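for the recovery benchmark. tokens below, seq after
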């Protein structure tokens, strides 16, 4: 091949190389951009109701085999969650815990890498991978995120096995009542040590 053609071939391949390199770089994981409510299933068979509005997500977890409902209110930007009902018989006490890479409640935050596409809850979604070796996960966590950044399914490697942590079954985009995301005035919030979480609410612990 003549030198000028060889140079042209190299230059023409640069955009693809650069795009491929950028795709492999970590970037902020997009957070939900719309109000929505959903019904989902967590690993272990727990049923979950989800509400989101304005950067806050409410999860109402009905642990499999346990009568008491556990309610969590997440501040996605702060990566914090207030959990109510996690301690039986102490309905006026709540715990503040960190959330993030382990996706233990379906939502991942922070940085991740785009690794492909898939389908969940009847919708196309983009796969984001987060390298997490903290909490219950011993490997990467993958989140399937919709076009408007709703987490439709999260998966993780747990005890050497690939497991679905959370999967949305029913999804409705609609305005949400702001009162859903408020902590009741009679509830006292206690901060949990960093990295700790109520065992009863962890997937697979039910």
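predicted aa per position
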């Amino acid at each position: 091949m003549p030198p000028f053609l060889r140079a042209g071939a190299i230059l023409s391949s640069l955009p693809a190389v650069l795009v491929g390199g950028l795709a492999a770089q970590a970037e902020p994981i997009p957070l939900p951009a719309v109000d929505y409510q959903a019904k989902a299933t967590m690993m272990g068979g727990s049923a979950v109701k989800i509400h989101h509005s304005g950067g806050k997500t409410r999860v109402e977890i009905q642990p499999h085999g346990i009568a008491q409902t556990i309610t969590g209110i997440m501040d996605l930007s702060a990566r914090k969650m207030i959990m109510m009902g996690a301690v039986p018989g102490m309905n006026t006490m709540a715990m503040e815990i960190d959330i993030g890479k382990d996706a233990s409640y379906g939502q991942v935050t922070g940085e991740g890498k785009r690794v492909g596409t898939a389908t969940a809850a009847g919708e196309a979604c983009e796969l984001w991978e987060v390298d997490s070796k903290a909490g219950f996960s011993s490997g990467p966590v993958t989140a399937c995120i919709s076009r408007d950044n709703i987490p439709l399914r999260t998966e993780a490697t747990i005890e050497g096995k690939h497991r679905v942590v959370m999967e949305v079954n029913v999804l409705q985009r609609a305005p949400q009542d702001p009162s859903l995301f408020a902590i009741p005035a009679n509830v006292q919030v206690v901060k949990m040590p960093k990295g700790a979480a109520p065992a009863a609410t962890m997937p697979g612990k039910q």
